Amino acid sequence: MDWIFIAAAAFLAGLIDAVVGGGGLVLLPALFVTLPQAVPAMLLGTNKFAAIFGTASAAVRYAKSIQVPWSVTLPAALAALVFSWFGAMSVALLPKDMLRPLLLLLLIIVVAYTFARKDFGSIDENRQHGTKEKYWAVLLGASLGFYDGFFGPGMGSFLIFLYVRFFGLDFLRASSAAKIVNVASNAAALVYFGATGHVLWMLALVLAACNISGALLGSHLAVRHGSRFVRWVFLAVATALIAKFGYDTFAGTVLFKL
Fold first, then answer.
1. What is the pLDDT of residues 158-206, one digit of tens each?
2. Which of 145, 148, 209, 223 has the least CB density, counted as fewest CB within 10 Å?
3. Which residue range forms the structural domain that includes residue 170?
4. Tens digits of per-residue pLDDT, 225-234?
5. In angstroms, what CA-CA distances link 115 with 62, 101, 102, 188?
6. DSSP labels, 200-236
7. Alpha-carbon distances of 132 from 53, 75, 79, 129, 138, rounded to whole Å
8. Which residues touch 122 (CB under 8 Å, ≥6 apart)?
9. Is residue 257 assigned to a domain?
10. 251 to 97, 100, 187: CA distances (angstroms)
11. CA 28 to chain centre
12. Angle, CA of 183, 132 and 184, to the nearest 5°
């Protein structure tokens, strides 16, 4: 029964992650509930292994179906690859609890802004992305890559919002870019967790297969239904993140260390 539960969680996490990110909201709590005896780093590493395959399959699906903004995606992905490693190394050095109030405030601003601007991310502005935008992409990839290696929840949602806001993309193309950057940051963090022996390999392989299945369905739904669908899923996941961070911040108790 535990295997069925956790496999279903991996499938749902892949589906959500493929659309807007935030699959960790589903799979990590399921891992903590199912394997309470495991150390947190082991569960984080196992989750990263499953997530990278799902995210990569979604990224390939997007790349085949829509025009990915490579000029501002590759620089961000390379920066995320490097800085996610440093983020993972910093896990034991920096107190994560200090991040929660700031992240809660940022998420509230992101959701309020998206709700207030009904046309936000609905139309791709087809901007030309030059050198300035590439520098911004590197900064974006570096900062969120470090955050993903160190902590992680909401990275996909933040990426999508920033790609819409600063590069003029619609939600669908922003999601495609976010997936590629997220693959890079997951890869670096996974190498770190794997090298330190913090992956349950057999379980991770099963979860990866389920995550891939969910990701393929999620990316199919996103491509089929377009930016409006991605926007509403984005708002739903970001609202769930607000509830999660709000509880962790004000209740003073962290049930699941995402």
1. 899 999 999 999 999 999 999 999 999 999 989 988 998 989 999 999 9
2. 209
3. 2-251
4. 999 899 999 8
5. 25, 21, 20, 34
6. -HHHHHHHHHHHHHHHHHHHHHHHHHHHHHHHHHHHH
7. 32, 12, 16, 8, 10
8. 170, 171, 227, 228, 231
9. no
10. 12, 12, 33
11. 13
12. 10
Residue 256 included in any domain: no
> Is 180 a member of any domain?
yes
The DSSP code sequence of the chain is -HHHHHHHHHHHHHHHHHHHS-THHHHHHHHHHH-TTS-HHHHHHHHHHHHHHHHHHHHHHHHHHS---HHHHHHHHHHHHHHHHHHHHTTTTS-GGGHHHHHHHHHHHHHHHHHH-TTTTTS-------HHHHHHHHHHHHHHHHHHHHT-TTHHHHHHHHHHHHH---HHHHHHHHHHHHHHHHHHHHHHHHHTT---HHHHHHHHHHHHHHHHHHHHHHHHHHHHHHHHHHHHHHHHHHHHHHHHHHH---SS--
Q: 200 Cβ partners below 8 Å, 6+ apart?
A: 35, 38, 42, 45, 46
Distances (CA, A) of 82 to 88, 187, 210, 230: 11, 10, 28, 28
Q: Reply yes or no on whether the pLDDT at 249 is more than 80.
A: no
Contacts of 257 (CB under 8 A, 6+ apart): 28, 32, 40, 96
21, part of any domain: yes
